């Protein structure tokens, strides 16, 4: 199961985005997953739920969108809480 | 001001990221690929189930080339140095990448592995991935080609069960062909038909590391990497057995 390492990579991206915007928390996370991306959405969600505990994403729901591009696996949009 | 969810909270700002989650891995993979190109090293990502015969193929490749090409292997496994030890005995430079609990290799692990292997002097670098038909498929390592080993004992429907892996393959090596006389229910034609359903440009070679059958065609295929390969791509119409 590689979903955990993908979530880890996504948290690195989220950290970069938070620093760019001086954000203090994340309110929502949206990812796009294609049918052939090699990622099981339910497992990705489970890994996210494990990983986000005690992080800036603790209260941020994860929205998973079916991507029309089958190979797509992207961090699409964040809603960031700023001071 | 949040204008995406309508909550009206002035402290929430939407931020469009639109970045591949594997962007970090992709950057390191590009870096590896540039290294390989700069030193004219052909990099082969060799994938397949545990026990598909990946290591045996490497041993047979070394025997067939008989020292005419410089071969190196980065062997990925969760534990043990066994595969690297085996291919070293066959005369191949080899280092292990021990992944612990990770089910795949990523570009950074390969990059670190390169620091321990005199890879610049090689003609071919084989990256023997962790035995797994799922996770390794989505990580670019910087390789030139993806080769998947599928043994005749694994079942004809593996390409249909693990389509992402076989979709990414440039070549499928159907291994352990010497066992076919003992497997009356296994049909190479059925494997070929199933591969044609999932591979954009189906290409397979039926080989046996034990008898050496088909290894000459595998060597020809390897030697064609980086040069025009008319046999590939045009092979699709005939379901691509080379």
**What radius of gyration of chain B results from the CA coordinates?**
20 Å
State the end-to-end CA separation of chain B: 61 Å
What's the tally of helices of chain A? 2
**Strand order, largest beta sheet of chain A:** 2-1-3
Shape of chain B: globular
Indicate the overall shape of chain A.
Answer: globular
Q: How many β-strand runs of chain B?
A: 8
Spans of at least 5 consecutive residues with low confidence of chain A = none
Strand arrangement across the biggest beta sheet of chain B = 4-3-5-2-6-7-8
Give a verbal description of the structure.
The complex is a heterodimer of chains A (83) and B (242). In chain A, strands 2-1-3 form a 3-stranded mixed sheet, covered by helices on one side. In chain A, helix 1 (3-21) crosses helix 2. Chain A is of the alpha+beta class. Chain A is 36% helix and 28% strand. The model of chain A has no long low-confidence stretch (mean pLDDT 95). Chain A starts with a helix and ends with a strand. By secondary structure, chain B is of the alpha/beta class. Chain B has helices at 23-38, 54-65, 82-89, 107-114, 158-161, 163-167, 188-198, 215-223; strands spanning 12-20, 42-48, 71-77, 93-98, 124-128, 145-151, 171-175, 204-206. Chain B is globular. In chain B, 44% of the residues are buried. Residues 228-242 of chain B have low confidence and may be disordered. Chain A binds chain B through residues 1-2, 5-6, 9-10, 12-13, 17, 20-21, 23, 27-28, 31, 36-39, 72-83, and chain B through 2, 4-5, 9, 11-25, 102-104, 106, 134-135, 137-139, 163-164, 167.
């Amino acid at each position: 199961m590689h979903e955990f390492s993908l979530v880890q990579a996504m948290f690195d991206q989220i950290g970069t985005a938070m620093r760019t915007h001086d954000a203090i928390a994340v309110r929502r996370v949206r990812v796009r997953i294609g049918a052939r991306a090699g990622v099981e959405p339910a497992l990705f969600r489970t890994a996210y739920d494990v990983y986000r505990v005690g992080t800036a994403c603790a209260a941020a729901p994860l929205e998973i969108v079916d991507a029309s591009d089958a190979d797509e696996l992207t961090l699409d949009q964040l809603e960031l809480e700023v001071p | 001001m949040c204008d995406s969810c309508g909550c009206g909270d002035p402290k929430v700002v939407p931020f469009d990221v639109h970045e591949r989650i594997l962007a970090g891995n992709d950057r390191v993979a590009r870096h590896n690929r540039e290294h390989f190109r700069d030193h004219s090293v052909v990099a082969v990502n060799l994938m397949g189930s545990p026990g598909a015969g990946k290591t045996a193929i490497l041993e047979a490749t070394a025997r067939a080339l008989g020292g005419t090409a410089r071969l190196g292997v980065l062997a990925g496994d969760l534990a043990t140095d066994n595969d690297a030890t085996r291919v070293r005995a066959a005369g191949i430079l080899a280092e292990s990448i021990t992944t612990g609990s990770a089910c795949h290799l990523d570009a950074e692990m390969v990059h670190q592995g390169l620091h321990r292997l005199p890879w610049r002097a090689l003609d071919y670098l084989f990256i023997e991935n962790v035995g797994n038909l799922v996770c390794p498929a989505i990580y670019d390592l910087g390789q030139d080609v993806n080769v998947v080993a599928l043994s005749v004992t694994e079942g004809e429907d593996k390409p249909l069960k693990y389509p992402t892996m076989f979709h990414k393959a440039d070549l499928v090596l159907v291994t352990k062909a010497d066992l076919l006389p003992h497997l009356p229910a296994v049909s190479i034609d059925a494997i070929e038909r199933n591969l044609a359903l999932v591979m954009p440009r189906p290409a397979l070679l039926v080989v046996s590391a034990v008898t050496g059958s088909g290894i000459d065609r595998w060597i020809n295929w390897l030697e064609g990497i980086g040069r025009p390969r008319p046999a590939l791509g045009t092979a699709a119409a005939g379901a691509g057995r080379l």
